[in-house]
TrEMBL record:
It catalyses: cytidine(1402) in 16S rRNA + S-adenosyl-L-methionine = 2'-O-methylcytidine(1402) in 16S rRNA + S-adenosyl-L-homocysteine + H(+). GO terms for cellular component: cytoplasm. NCBIfam families: 16S rRNA (cytidine(1402)-2'-O)-methyltransferase. Pfam families: TP_methylase. This is Ribosomal RNA small subunit methyltransferase I. Catalyzes the 2'-O-methylation of the ribose of cytidine 1402 (C1402) in 16S rRNA. It comes from Mucispirillum schaedleri ASF457.
């Protein structure tokens, strides 16, 4: 039997009793990061052989798992943190196992995306999980544009090396505020809400990030209606006071306008 096991995303106390019992009973553990896996097993007094199962060796490692199962072994599959298959390796072997009609069992564990969604306070109905965006800026922007028609909260994962760039781009295309959760379940966990470019510069660039944008049509309409904003009137008044277009753009972003919409409206009314 293959056991797909969720592991803590930061707080070791989140490892379930069922996960510990299952890890204790299997013959071998396949892990995204064997060093992290051994630390986890040692913390529970579990001694099991570990083999690698990561993105670049999924195909060959999947064959090794299948071979173990056919030889009558019980196998555990774990990610470095969280649930396998959720922005982590695992889908390749699951697909092969289904095709071969072999049994597998899922041992639930923490997932950062749900943690981030709850921490955002955005709509708890439907949502869309996108995971990681491309590394290159042009590809990232192209992918973000395909998500604009999803009228629900959209959740991303991001590394500390690219989080500021990603937030700057997201702020150009989605309504503020953008919820940013870092170090989920850890001692220094925090969720902050990004409204302006200045907010992005002030974030602590450490740990893994969950970014949630609120593209829910209901919430956007509710915000706009409750504020009863007449953007045309506000911009005209600001322009009449000789306030620079750059400063007006910042103000309109703070009021919830998308950057591109505000930019185009300011240019239109400036003529």
């Amino acid at each position: 039997m293959l056991y797909v096991i969720g592991t803590p995303i930061g707080n070791l106390s989140d490892l379930s009793k069922r996960a510990v019992e299952t890890l204790s009973s299997v013959d071998i553990v396949f892990a995204e990061d064997t060093r992290t896996a051994l630390n986890l097993l040692n913390s529970q007094g579990i001694k099991k052989p570990c083999k690698s199962y990561y993105k670049d060796n999924e195909k060959t490692a999947s064959e090794s798992i299948i071979a173990c199962l056919l030889n009558g072994n019980n196998v555990a599959l774990i990610s470095e943190a969280g649930m396998p298959c959720i922005s982590d390796p695992g889908a390749v072997v699951i697909k092969k196992i289904i095709q071969k009609g072999l049994p597998f069992e899922i041992i639930q564990g923490p997932t950062a995306l749900i943690h981030g969604l709850i921490a955002s306070g955005f709509s708890g109905g439907s949502f869309y999980f996108h995971g990681f965006l491309p590394h290159k800026e042009k590809e990232k922007i192209k992918e973000i544009k395909t998500l604009l028609n999803i009228k629900a909260p959209v959740i991303f994962y991001e590394s500390p090396y690219r989080v500021k760039e990603t937030l700057n781009i997201l702020l150009d295309y989605f309504h503020a505020p953008i919820a940013v959760t870092r170090e989920a379940t850890k001692v220094y966990e925090e969720t902050i809400f990004i409204i302006s470019k200045e907010d992005i510069e002030n974030i602590t660039v450490k740990g893994e990030f969950v970014i949630t944008v609120n593209n829910s049509l209901e919430d956007i309409n509710e915000t706009n209606n409750s504020l009863s904003l007449n953007y045309d009137h506000i911009i005209k008044e600001l322009l009449s006071e000789n306030i620079s277009s750059k400063d007006i753009l910042k103000m309109m972003k703070t009021l919830g306008m998308k950057r591109n919409e505000a930019y185009n409206l300011i240019n239109k009314l400036s003529m």
